[in-house]
């Protein structure tokens, strides 16, 4: 005599065991008696999944969905768009703040790193990983270093120098901007502090986009 069917929910307790379809379980038992999960090495069960190109059981698939999601080109592209948007917002805010107040506040680097990473994680629905971390670092660095370009332009124009054709030197300005955090070192201690804060900001962005085992 086979074991009687017991519903977990209790909703179908009155149904006779014969009315509940069990062919999928039977199929599994007949066709793949030794098929093991590539992750936990336990029998896979009725439904199999692919996690990290390994055949996995439903439980491991549920736990591994974040790593699956991080492989998604769509989520990564979306994450890059969000991150780039945040980098532009961060650059604009930093430059505008500095131009208006004439204050260089290195700590803005922390805020920009946080903003870029937060936006990227929003775009990826929580998925992260190495390439997300690299992108977050690049975007944060670009936003902070390139903010020095509009600041320089504004300062030069405020000094009455309005005859410069900025578009003709745009390329040089961009290169100068990218290098500017290191050029600051010529200013001595304040330059070193600025660079240290920049690295802390990059670290914030890097850590926040590591991703985890979160389900999306
Ligand atoms: Zn498993």
Detail the topology: elements first, then pairings.
Blueprint: H1 23-31, E1 49-51, E2 54-56, H2 58-63, H3 65-70, H4 73-101, H5 108-123, H6 130-146, H7 148-158, H8 170-183, H9 189-208
Antiparallel strand pairs: 1-2
Helix pairs in contact: 4-5, 4-6, 4-7, 5-6, 5-9, 6-8, 6-9
Content-based structural category: mainly alpha
What is the overall pLDDT average?
Answer: 78
Strand percentage lies at under 5%
Straight-line N-to-C gap: 44 Å
Largest sheet: 2 strands, antiparallel
Total strand segments = 2
Assembly context of the chains: single chain
Chemical compounds bound to the protein: zinc ion
State the shape.
Answer: elongated
As a percent range, the share of helical residues equals 55-70%
Supply the number of structural domains: 2
- The number of distinct helices, counting runs of at least 4 residues, comes to 9
Cα-atom radius of gyration: 27 Å
Please trace the helix and strand order, writing H or E for each element: HEEHHHHHHHH
């Amino acid at each position: 005599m086979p074991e009687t069917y017991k519903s977990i929910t209790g909703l179908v307790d009155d149904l006779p065991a014969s009315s509940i379809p069990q062919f999928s379980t039977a199929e599994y038992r007949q066709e793949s008696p030794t098929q093991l999960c590539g992750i936990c090495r336990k029998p896979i069960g009725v439904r199999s999944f692919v996690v990290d190109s390994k055949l996995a059981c439903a439980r491991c698939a549920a736990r591994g969905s974040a790593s699956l999601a991080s492989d998604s080109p769509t989520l990564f592209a979306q994450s890059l768009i969000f991150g780039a948007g945040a980098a532009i917002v961060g650059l604009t805010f930093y430059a505008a703040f500095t131009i208006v107040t004439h204050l260089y506040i290195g700590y803005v680097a922390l805020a920009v790193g946080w903003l870029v990473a937060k936006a990227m994680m929003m775009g990826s629905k929580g998925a992260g990983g190495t390439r997300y971390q690299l992108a977050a670092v690049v975007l944060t660095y670009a936003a902070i270093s390139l903010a020095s370009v509009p600041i320089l332009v504004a300062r030069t124009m405020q000094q009455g120098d309005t005859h410069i054709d900025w578009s003709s030197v745009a390329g040089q300005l961009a290169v100068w901007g990218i290098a500017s955090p290191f050029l600051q070192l010529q200013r001595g201690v304040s330059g070193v502090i600025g660079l240290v804060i920049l690295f802390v900001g990059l670290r914030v962005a890097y850590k926040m986009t590591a991703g985890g085992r979160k389900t999306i």
